[in-house]
Structures are given as structure tokens and as C-alpha cells.
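note to self — DONT lose this again. spent like an hour looking for the file last time. sequence + predicted structure for the chain T wanted, 229 res
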Amino acid sequence: MSIAEGMTAATQWLATPPGQYLLAREQVYFDNAVADIFGYHALQLGMEELDLLRASRIPLRVHVGRGATTGLRTDFRDLPIESNSVDLMVLPHTLEFSDHPHQIVREVARALRPEGQVVIAGFNPLSLWGLRRGMSGRDAFPWNGSFIHLPRVKDWFALLGLEIVAGSMACYAPPCADQKWLDRFAFMEKVGDRWWPIAGGVFFLQAIKRVRGIRLIMPKWSDNVVPKK
């Protein structure tokens, strides 16, 4: 599938009932997450069909991708961005549709300034959405993505100095193609966090880049050394 075809498939799926169900919950999460993050530069990697930085107060907000409508066309694995320069990066399902997700996380960690933040959304394979992917063909969006287990993403973050400060799950109802059935399963969204908190169809993670400095503490020799008599 070409890049253009992939974008069209994502746009078409987001217009379906399960796509709208997903989009509504992700937009709320990203709006709340980015609203209180300050700085000068914010990037959204992927899903240029959506504006997940709309609630951000950061003045320079750029969509990064490979489509014609992006502000910066580039490969996520090798961002032409100065190290330690970005205040906020959001990755909506960017990792599961890449052949090199760990390299993308590495680039994110490199580009973020110290105390800069990253917010990601990913499909949870241990959910009804993951079950739907396993039971059907994987030639259509979003089932053609490689759903990544949450502990694995957390490990990548920890190794690269990204400290997780918030997280959540959403989309507990099955991804029914018919709005009628989504409405019938609406109760699952209300009780999902209590009944099956790790089985949401989508997970969110928010992390801060921590750069711990080394402070050398010298002993006071004059206080510790007992003078010879």
C-alpha cells in the first residue's frame, strides 16, 4: 500500500462508526494532555488528518509526516530536528504503523529538550480491538498495524530517559461496524476502568524527558582529618 493510499484508508475508516468512536475519545485525551504544556515548539508525528495539537498553547505547532498536507515532510526515523529543541511531541498511532518503532522513540527522545514531553496513543493488543485484529484479515486500516504491547513501550521509554507521568485507556467497547451495536455496548466505556482496566482498545502514555545531572560533592577534609599530635 502506498503512502497516499494509506492516508486515504485512515481517513475513510475514521469516518466510520468505530472510527468516530475512537476519534472522539482520543481527541478528548489529547486536548486535556497538551493544554497545560508550555514552550515554543510542538510537533505531531503522523495522522495529519487530525489536529491533536489544537488545544496546545505552544505558538509553533507543526504536523510532521509524509503526506502532501504536512508542515514538514520527512521520515520519522531520522527527524531533521535539532537535538534538545522540541517542547512537546504527540504520536497518534505512529509506532504501530512503522517498521522501526523503537528508532522513532529514540528520535523523539533525542529531539525533546530536557523536561520536554511526549504523548502517544496506541492500539492495545490485549483488548477486544486486538481480538478483532487477530480474527480478521489484516489488509485494512487499522487492523494492518502491528499492535505493540504496553509494557514494551514502557521499557523503551525507560531506556531512553522518558519518565512516564500519566496514562489511561479508552475504547472498551468492541469495534462494531454498526452504530446501533456501539450504542448497545456504551455501558462498557463507563465501567471499563473499574472492571477491566488493562483491556481498553487504546492506551495513552505521557512522559517527560529527564536529564539528571551529576553533582560532585567534595568532602571537607579539614573537618574529617584528625591532625597528628
